[in-house]
Amino acid sequence: MPKLTIRQWPLPIETGKATILDAALDCGVPFPHGCRTGECGACKCLLLSGDVAMKNYDSAALSASEKAAGFVLACRAKPSGDVHVAWLGETASIDLPVRRLAAQVTNMEQVSPLIKRLYLWPEEPLQFAAGQFARLKFADLPARAYSMASMPGEEVLEFHVRLIPGGRVSAHIEDDLKVGDTVQIEGPYGSAHLRSGDDSPLVLVAGSSGLAPAKSIARTALKSQPDRRVHLYFGVRDEAHVYDERELKVLVARYSNLRVDTVLSDPAGHTERRSGNLAEVLTQDLSAHRDAQFYVAGPPEMVSSVSQAVAASGIGREQIHADPFHVSGQEVDENAAAQAPPHNVNRLLDGMRGLLAIGLLQHLKSRAPFSLTKALQEPAAESVAPETANGVAGRR
Ligand SMILES: Cc1cc2nc3c(=O)[nH]c(=O)nc-3n(C[C@H](O)[C@H](O)[C@H](O)COP(=O)(O)OP(=O)(O)OC[C@H]3O[C@@H](n4cnc5c(N)ncnc54)[C@H](O)[C@@H]3O)c2cc1C
Ligand code: FES
């Protein structure tokens, strides 16, 4: 059986026919990842030795030059023999173990035309950081990623599920799921989580069910740091899609330093609320947020446009934590991916990843301690050293 070794993990892993990511996650390794379908780039890693076959992926998640330099997407790469990799993305919370727990549905409510709130009671507490997600497995359907809306430490987990037309799991949740049903939970995962030991202001940008991680982050931060400045932008199409307003008003009444702007992208008639797309509305306020940490969650296009707007204003990319909600079941269509617009969140963060990659490569060559901060501060080298490139057997 081929062996997978990971630079940041002490034990070798047997891969069988699985991708690098599946093999790692099956063994409880906190390998950084997001969509698992080759679209977000969060699982990008450096192939230090060995060969892999790549399943189809979005070229915005892994550029041709990155591929030529020896990078692969762990969620798309199947080892052809023994392989050794080093992950590039920021790991989530390496101290938090990935658990697989059974949970019971204790309550459900339709909170807006498209969103259903679920409360799940796990057999044992699930440790996670605010902003992280879990993979939920309903009946015999494939697992899907959903972010926790509850605070770490709360016994019952809250999720906001956007019902996707034609979606398999969405249809099950909409039509068949009942209170008392069992759901399998696997997690926590995700690196767009609230950082501990930081008190800078928070700007939370949530599109639709992106409110779930934003709410978890806001409540968690304010509970331990009641004076922290938090500004939540919650974007929905129109008045009918606004939800959780009463709960947010209670929070605003409790914390005078919390501000919530509900933004309607397509209001039906006159509105007292702010309107327009989230990137435009946020841009009007950016001069007041230069020292903030930005957490952006929801539809990938929204996350992309907001992240671009923030970075274009000169705010440091290390201040942006993007959490695009890619839909799991839709495998990347190769033709569509080849024509994908160049401006997406992955391209935006490529510059930062490039710097990290070069820092990592220098570290691998010198064996000096790898410093994330140093890698971000150092100017990018002209090109990646040719001896680091590996023969990657990819389909692109
Ligand atoms: C890190 C992360 C966190 C997330 N957090 C949340 C959250 O908190 N809340 C939330 O609502 N969502 C969240 N999501 C998104 C959520 O995981 C998806 O909405 C979910 O995967 C949809 O699953 P589904 O089975 O309902 O739809 P799927 O069955 O996956 O299908 C979705 C759509 O794709 C189409 N499709 C599927 N397969 C094909 C195919 N082969 N060819 C053509 N079309 C196809 C379907 O017709 C449908 O329109 C998150 C995603 C990620 C990556
Ligand atoms: S997890 Fe691999 S590209 Fe998103």
Task: Give me the secondary-structure topology.
Elements: E1 3-6, E2 13-14, H1 20-26, E3 44-49, E4 52-54, H2 64-68, E5 71-73, E6 77-79, E7 83-87, E8 99-112, E9 115-122, E10 133-138, E11 144-147, E12 157-162, H3 168-175, E13 182-189, E14 202-207, H4 211-224, E15 230-236, H5 245-254, E16 258-264, E17 274-275, H6 278-285, E18 293-298, H7 300-312, E19 320-324, H8 334-338, H9 345-366, H10 372-377
Parallel strand pairs: 1-7, 14-15, 14-18, 15-16, 16-17, 18-19
Antiparallel strand pairs: 1-2, 3-5, 3-7, 4-6, 8-9, 8-13, 9-12, 10-11, 10-13
Helix pairs in contact: 6-7
Bound molecules: flavin-adenine dinucleotide and FE2/S2 (inorganic) cluster.
Pick out its properties.
Elongation Factor Tu (Ef-tu), domain 3, 19 strands, 10 helices, six-stranded antiparallel beta sheet, disordered C terminus, alpha/beta, Ubiquitin-like (UB roll), binds flavin-adenine dinucleotide, binds FE2/S2 (inorganic) cluster, Rossmann fold, six-stranded parallel beta sheet, 396 residues
Walk me through this protein's architecture.
This protein has 396 residues and is an alpha/beta fold. It is built from ten helices and 19 strands. Helix 6 packs parallel to helix 7. Flavin-adenine dinucleotide binds next to strand 11, strand 12 and helix 3.
List the bound ligands.
flavin-adenine dinucleotide, FE2/S2 (inorganic) cluster
Oligomeric description of these chains: single chain
Provide mean pLDDT, rounded.
Answer: 84
**Main β sheet profile:** 6 strands, antiparallel
Low-confidence stretches: 331-359, 362-396
Order of helices and strands: EEHEEHEEEEEEEEHEEHEHEEHEHEHHH
